[in-house]
Amino acid sequence: MTMQAHERSPGEPPATGQVTIPRQPTGWPAEPPVLSFHDVDMVFRGGVHAVDQVSLDVAPGELVSIVGPSGCGKSTLLRIASGLQAPTHGSVTAPDDHIAYVFQDPTLLPWRNVLDNVALCSQLRREPKSERLRKAQAAIDMVGLTGFEKRYPNQLSGGMRMRTSLARALTLDPRLFLFDEPFGAIDEITRERLNGELLRIFSGSRFAGLFVTHSIAEAVFLSSRVVVMSARPGRIIGEFAVPFPYPRTPRLRAEAEFAALTGQIGECLRGGAE
Ligand SMILES: Nc1ncnc2c1ncn2[C@@H]1O[C@H](COP(=O)(O)OP(=O)(O)O)[C@@H](O)[C@H]1O
Ligand SMILES: [Mg+2]
């Protein structure tokens, strides 16, 4: 999918104040990005200028986080990436299909058990029953919910509901994973456990992921790159490469380099919050 809007006129100034870093650590093979925003603006009808001159690439296997103040256009960017919304300016390249979208609200159907909730997308795609059960079970195993297939949403903890939502997304065989503050309503310990699970799922895959979060520590722990956005109109005011190798363990969060990087990102965020 490529969405185009009119090009920025020649003479218009480029974005200022951006921190430029290499997009990928040197030595990485140059792979075409799965998701690419090029000079994207979003101005809503009524005049709200939500997103300003955003350019960003996400390569296969890469998990990029976005942090920024409330209302700076993070969810808008995800909607644009998913094709739900067209930008008013600039272009976006993303897969036509195989996009998984995970929200803070796990949006499970209360009258369906875990297995049937996870199988929902395959059912809507009219895949044969044996195939959708096979896919659902594989996804349930992947998120660590084996044995809970027959439980209903009201019999699950918040973390288990989120795992169910992740499993349902995995049945789409995603090429692109979009996360909109998925763990924002989950307690700290469960959230850290889910972060570990997500990294494990990502490590065996070639998805590209764009992860919106309010937690700088979560962004650093998960990502190879953290993008910082300013207050509205949201523009990229910083990009930080996260140098810690994968696989990452929870101990990383206690290391001095981890604290130093989260501190730096926090400073950048506060600088752009006015
Ligand atoms: N459909 C819409 N129409 C008008 N304004 C919108 C619409 N969607 C979002 N906005 C506004 O755009 C801004 C960015 O919203 P959003 O992307 O949800 O921010 P964030 O996810 O960073 O908190 C907000 O001011 C919001 O009120
Ligand atoms: Mg949002």
Explain what this protein looks like in three dimensions.
By secondary structure, this protein is an alpha/beta fold. The chain has two domains: 168 residues, Rossmann fold (3-Layer(aba) Sandwich), CATH 3.40.50.300; 66 residues, no CATH class. Helices cover 31% and strands 21% of the residues. The strands form two sheets. Strands 6-7-8-4-9-10 form a six-stranded mixed sheet, with helices on both faces. Strands 1-5-2-3 form a four-stranded antiparallel sheet, covered by helices on one side. α4 crosses α5 and α7 crosses α8. About 7% of the residues have low confidence. Bound molecules: adenosine-5'-diphosphate and magnesium ion (MG). The site of magnesium ion has 3 residues, from α1. Adenosine-5'-diphosphate binds next to α1.
